[in-house]
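@channel sequence for tomorrow's demo:
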Amino acid sequence: MTIAQNRADRVMLYNISWQQFENLLQDLGESRAARVAYDDGTLEIMTPLPEHEYYKKVISTAVEDIAEELNIVVLGLEV
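structure tokens (generated this afternoon):
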């Protein structure tokens, strides 16, 4: 396994097997804060920057408000 850290919010791991990736996902669980991506042996782990979380909340609130005004039921992915 090779580790490279280009930015403070991202870590790249190389030579990771699919089974190792599956095990990591299971260990992290569904409510993980970090974002993970896997491609042909390369695993990328990213943490959202604060400004991304801010915009996520702004967009979420806008969608919820519009749906409420239009009497539309919105089901989110987060529990």
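heads up for whoever presents: The radius of gyration is 17 Å.
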